[in-house]
Amino acid sequence: MSYLAVQGLSIQFGGLKAVDDVSFEVAQGEVFTIIGPNGAGKTTVFNMISRLYTPTAGRIVFKDEDITRLPVQLVAARGIARTFQNIELFENASTLDNLLVGRHRHSSTSLVEDILFSGRVRRQELEHREAVERVIELLRLQHCRDMLISGLPYGVRKVIELGRALAIGPELLLLDEPSSGLNVEETDDMAHWILDIRRRLGITVLMVEHDMSLVSRVSDRVLALNYGKIMAVGTAQEVQTHPDVVAAYLGT
Ligand SMILES: Nc1ncnc2c1ncn2[C@@H]1O[C@H](COP(=O)(O)OP(=O)(O)OP(=O)(O)O)[C@@H](O)[C@H]1O
């Protein structure tokens, strides 16, 4: 049984085949990275796995369940969380509140239950708080726990965005360009967090990334896309030196 299997995945926007017959498998515990030039279809693959887009053809199977058409609100309940290329945090709320929002979105109690069974709700609230405090400790965010996002540097916000995805307790984490907008030192820290998350929490990571130093440092395997099609799959070294990949990046 494969952990995550993407089979013949395709999506078309008007006349454009943004992703064209893409198949790959990700093993449990692996850091698997998708690279490729701008417009290659990387984020679109993510958007299909996280169910923001429905494929035109193909299947996505996660732990033996076909999730190709799973309603988007059930994705987190299956243990899949994602971050976005552009940070999507609430600017005028604290770090703590942003992480709690990540949890509440996936809360299992309804409004009626909230009113009728306040004990259960209180227990769940406690669980949310404990989970969020664990993430704050793991990512060493204590210094900005109660600070508003709007006053925090970009590099810290990127780590909080990662924390918000972790707060829901995922087993598969989709990271869309975790290093975008970060300087060399912050990118180095991000590599550390990704490896730490995998090592300490056993989370499987599927990542889209441009920075090849980060890709080489954290990835077990790399897949290169171009014009929606797979060019190469292998180690970072193998893929980076593949003639089709070299040609695509040089624009030849
Ligand atoms: N909702 C959409 N409607 C129309 N076209 C889209 C849509 N989403 C993506 N595309 C197109 O699909 C192609 C692939 O886009 P995608 O964002 O997946 O590329 P990418 O590899 O992630 O690029 P980048 O590295 O620049 O983020 C592009 O040509 C893009 O314009």
UniProtKB/TrEMBL annotation:
<protein>
    <submittedName>
        <fullName>ABC transporter ATP-binding protein</fullName>
    </submittedName>
</protein>
<dbReference type="Pfam" id="PF00005">
    <property type="entry name" value="ABC_tran"/>
</dbReference>
<feature type="domain" description="ABC transporter">
    <location>
        <begin position="4"/>
        <end position="252"/>
    </location>
</feature>
<dbReference type="GO" id="GO:0005886">
    <property type="term" value="C:plasma membrane"/>
</dbReference>
<keyword id="KW-0547">Nucleotide-binding</keyword>
<dbReference type="InterPro" id="IPR027417">
    <property type="entry name" value="P-loop_NTPase"/>
</dbReference>
<keyword id="KW-0813">Transport</keyword>
<keyword id="KW-0067">ATP-binding</keyword>
<dbReference type="GO" id="GO:0005524">
    <property type="term" value="F:ATP binding"/>
</dbReference>
<dbReference type="InterPro" id="IPR032823">
    <property type="entry name" value="BCA_ABC_TP_C"/>
</dbReference>
<dbReference type="InterPro" id="IPR003439">
    <property type="entry name" value="ABC_transporter-like_ATP-bd"/>
</dbReference>
<dbReference type="Pfam" id="PF12399">
    <property type="entry name" value="BCA_ABC_TP_C"/>
</dbReference>
<dbReference type="GO" id="GO:0016887">
    <property type="term" value="F:ATP hydrolysis activity"/>
</dbReference>
<dbReference type="InterPro" id="IPR051120">
    <property type="entry name" value="ABC_AA/LPS_Transport"/>
</dbReference>
<dbReference type="InterPro" id="IPR003593">
    <property type="entry name" value="AAA+_ATPase"/>
</dbReference>
